[in-house]
Amino acid sequence: MNCLNKLKPLASSAGMLSRTYAFKSDLKIKWVRPEKIPCYKPQKSGDLHPMRPIAGSELLKDFQNSKELESADDTVRAMFSLENNRRREMLENFKEEMVKRVQRHELDYGSVEAKLGLMTAQIRSLQEVMEKFPRQSAAKVHLKELIDKRKRFLRYLRRWDYRRFEYVLEKLDLVYKPYPTHFHWITRKDSLRKLTDIHCDGIKSTRLQSYRELLESQQLDFLAKKLANLEFIRKEQMECKVPVTVTDGNKQIQAVKKQYEELKEKRKLLEEKTHEEE
Fold first, then answer.
1. What's 181's DSSP letter?
2. How many C-beta atoms surround the C-beta of residue 46 within 10 A?
3. Do 165 and 47 fall within a single domain?
4. pLDDT interval class at 15 (50, 70, 90)
5. DSSP class of residue 14?
6. pTM higher than 0.70 for the full model?
7. Spatial distance between the Cα atoms of 126 and 141, rounded to a whole number of angstroms
8. CA distance 243 to 252
9. Separation between Cα atoms, residue 46 and residue 28, nearest integer Å
10. What 8-state DSSP symbol labels residue 59?
11. Residues 124 and 225 grouped into a single domain
């Protein structure tokens, strides 16, 4: 028994040594788990604007073009206004407005565009309800079903008539957010691996850029030295009375001279530009 007690600290120290991979790395990379956004929120559903506030003085849907109410008393008009009626009447006005944005003609209520406008009005109304009463499970389930149904309709319209699909998105202030093709869990290990790769790529790109700038700063001196070496080789060949391979009209010398002059002119223009900016 005493021998086992003596071996316990050794085992714990061995376990600590074997788990060094789980310690924090020297790289200053911090990962924060992203906030989970419910699917019925506007950020996930794709609704860019909420349900617009409707003025209470607006008349009901069936009485907006009534000639009798135009000459009626203020008390009578107030009875047919939205502020003195149920919220359902206000929603009916909003539905009519959203459908009229995309309908093909005045009596169009059955096309795909009209159905999308109707569903968008219902979705934004339910989103407003969920903001005030987030524990209404029945409204939440109905809202999720409507969002999924609208996605299916948008996918169908996108497949068969892309121009009309873009038109509907613009008129209804929507962003199409399809389901991901491959689902994967967001884990700390995978996220840290990606962040480490991004960090290493950033270090590599900065070092390559600094090395490129160093080489470009030495390029002018290198070309001048290369021209001097070619001239020296030509002079030595002429003095030794051997076949001269480097001549004044040689393509290699002409190319080096041209590159040297262009680079020199470019450096001069850059210096003038920086001087003017200062």
1. S
2. 20
3. yes
4. very low
5. H
6. no
7. 10
8. 17
9. 35
10. B
11. no
Cα distances from 25 to residues 28, 192, 250, in angstroms, run 8, 11, 58
| 116 and 201 assigned to the same domain | no
**Both ends of the chain: CA-CA distance in Å?**
82
Residue 9 included in any domain: no
Torsion of CA 142, 144, 148, 153, to 10 degrees: 50
Residue 244 lies in a domain: yes
Do 145 and 259 share a structural domain? no
**How far, in Å, CA of 54 to CA of 61, rounded?**
12
Interval 208-248: pLDDT, tens: 999 998 888 888 888 888 888 888 887 888 888 788 777 76
For helices 162-172 and 137-160, what crossing angle results, to 10°? 140
Together in a domain, 240 and 118: no
In single-letter form, the type of residue at position 258 comes to: K
What the block records as the tokens of 181 is 């093709």
Q: Which residues, in sequence order, are bridge partners of residue 171?
A: none
Q: Which residues pair with 105 in a beta bridge?
A: none
**Three-state SS at 52:** coil
Task: Give the amino acid at 171.
Answer: K
Q: What is the pLDDT of residues 107-123, one digit of tens each?
A: 999 999 999 999 999 99
Identity (one letter) of the amino acid at 1? M
Q: How confident is the model at residue 17 (pLDDT cuts 50, 70, 90)?
A: very low
What is the total count of domains within the chain? 2
Residues 105-113: contacts with CB under 8 Å, at least 24 apart? 112/153, 112/156, 112/157, 113/157, 113/164, 113/168
